[in-house]
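User: I'm new to structure prediction. If I give you an amino acid sequence, what do you actually give back? Let's try with this one:
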Amino acid sequence: AGVLFNTETPLSYVQIVEKTGKTISTVRVYMNQLKFKGFIDESTLPNGTKIFSLRHKAKVKKLYNL
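Assistant: Good question. You get back a string of structure tokens that encode the predicted 3D arrangement of the chain. For your 66 residues, that looks like this:
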């Protein structure tokens, strides 16, 4: 959530992997958990790339003490 909190533009899986150093599998698990909890929005670009953005920055900031 921290990576998405610190950016104004939606990020793809690859961009999140590059910023966090986590594996693609780990990032997918995290994104699915955050999406299930309603913290992030997922969109798909015309080329099929999924991108993610935070839905409620204030709520996430409080929850994760960012």
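You can read the tokens as a compact description of the fold. Here is one thing that stands out. The helical segments are 2-5, 13-20, 24-36, 57-64.
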